[in-house]
Specification:
Chain A is of the alpha/beta class. Chain A has a single domain (3-317), classed as Thiamin diphosphate (ThDP)-binding fold, Pyr/PP domains (Rossmann fold). Chain A has twelve helices and eight strands. The longest helix of chain A is centred in the C-terminal third of the chain and has 19 residues, at 271-289. Chain B folds into two domains: 2-244, Thiamin diphosphate (ThDP)-binding fold, Pyr/PP domains (Rossmann fold), CATH 3.40.50; 252-382, Rossmann fold (3-Layer(aba) Sandwich). Classes of the chains: A alpha/beta, B alpha/beta.
Chain lengths: 319, 390
Amino acid sequence: MKIKDLPDDNLFTAGHTACPGCGVAMSIRNAIRILGKDTVVYVPASCAVVFGTTFPFGAWKVPFFHTAFENTGACLTGMKAAFEMKGKKVTAVGFAGDGGTYDIGLQSMSGAAERNDDVLYICLDNEAYMNTGIQRSGGTPFGAWTTTTPVGKKVQGNRRFKKNLADIVAAHEIPYYATLSIGHPLDFIKKVEKAMTFKGFRFLHMFTPCIPGWKMDPAKTVEVTKLAVESGMWTLYEIENGEKKITYKPGKMKRVRDYLMMQGRFRHMSDDDIKTLQMWVCKKWNLHYKEKGAPEVCEIAPPEEHHAVTEEHREMHGP
Amino acid sequence: MKKVITGDHAVAIGAKLSRAEVVPAYPITPQTLIIEHIADFVNDGEMDAKFLTMESEHSVMSAATAASAAGARVFTATSSQGLAFMHEMLYATAPLRLPIVMVNANRTLGGPPGIWCEHNDSMGARDSGWLQVYVEDNQEALDMVIQSYRIAEDKRVLLPVMPCIDGFVLTHTVEPVDVPQQQDVDSFLPPYMPDITLDPAKPALFNTLMLPEYIMELRRQTAGAFESAKKVISEINDEFAKKFGRDYGGMIDTYRMEDAEVALITIGTVTSTSREVVDELRKEGEKVGIVKLRFFRPFPAEDLKRVLSGVGAIGVFDRSISYHGGGHVFNEVCSALYGITKPIINHLAGIGGRDVTKEVIIKMFDLTLKAAKGEKVKEINWHNTRGETV
């Protein structure tokens, strides 16, 4: 399917109440256009329940189901079993956030993956608990400010690296895992379409900027996403029946600092912390992109661009 | 056809005869035999159902809820810690009006660990929106699985039902059970035909966020369905009795209550032993009887008022403690009989799986008879227990 061929059937309609520039809303809207109307959607506790379905309004034109936070995998399993008993050809799709997947929903996702139930699990990763007001999750990157990893006098931001969910999911030996970005629509379309061709548990991992959570310009959702990919903070690849394939390789690696400085959640980061994160990104970059025999890539931001955390900064950017 | 089977086996046969289509399961003692038998039925091709081996009870009730919303007849079973683990999901099922049937094998909950019969597990779920029925023997366990689907799927009710069976006393004990014929069950229980499901041909949104200006009406509707259920339970009991020849009385059952001066309210398997005790005490000239509490939700307040109007004192047996003084049944009975000035005496026994012997039940009647004669009797009595409370 080409971009111009994407149906404009409004299966997730305009008029929902997501923030302008919401990466989650963009991902849902485009994914459902590709998935089509023979789809039933499960959404766990998240912004998507609030902005998509606040009674008596609803943005979905496909059946929608919600019950709790930690059970996307199990709910997909249950509804798919019912569809199979009734002989209905329906795609069971879950749209869960990073908290609902990396943390509280990990067990339920793992159960569905291990059983290889014939469902499509989509993780919308905005790197924190945004619906509850920006708290750290297992998907929060190193250094990021959240309300539970505040920039304090003693400790600044999240001290752990983003959890390697991809390897956890892939270890279940499922037919298809892919990472997606709304900044790369052709790659996005191809992967959603491809996921539909497999039978069994399929996992699409979407990178979804959050305007208030990342403290960024709502006009820059796509730009930030692209920069995440160009800097190596987000990598585009797929794992098909155990075979990993890079689907997009950036040219020269952009500095992680450039990505960080577009977002208020990172602007407090010290030179040392940026260096630490850059090292982590370099390791990931080499793991994904380095060809056999090629030299290792590493780019460390120069110290003169150090942004100290000042009172003025706190006032401007929140904590 | 008569078969000598355990309570768990009887329940599994009940689910098969009810043609449950999706069975998500997770093992917990003493429920395990139920899901093992169902797995056998499915793998032997005797039961056309999806048997889902979930990774936790929370996922069991999540899958059950989703499968039910997608239009399937759903059965599952759990116990104790498992019921506690799925507690969150119990609350999602009722407002969605999903007629799931789940058997709970009553077992000790929390600390200290124990696997034997106690009602503290299901009593903790009494306000989660599930109908609850407590049974006396394996026959009633099987029959109530079938009846539960009729009650749950009745358009006047549309609520989940939890038949509760005493752990080990029933689950692992064999009794002769009359297994109904499939064609008889089919004519009693037609296929589940919900009006609204998760169907792309007729898209609907289930369980959207609801603001304060709407949510109260929804709660009121659910509460209303519990009221309607009382009539439906009675109708279905009568219909079942006509068809299968077994009359359980509906919300409650009574034994030798016609001229009784003292009544013992029982729940679960203790009823059987109590029947014998009543017969013996009657021979000695004591006018005693039993009110068997079957449904705990909805609570049969009107029925109790009616059958207890002539007695001088009421004993209430409890196999659970609510840390509010007495047991759960006692508290509900006091609330139902509010304003009636006759002694109500609570008898706590069998907690943690301790045997409730005839001697213990005789003691319950003795104390209640004393109260009826105006003697001073403690309101709450822990029977067959060492030491004093601190």
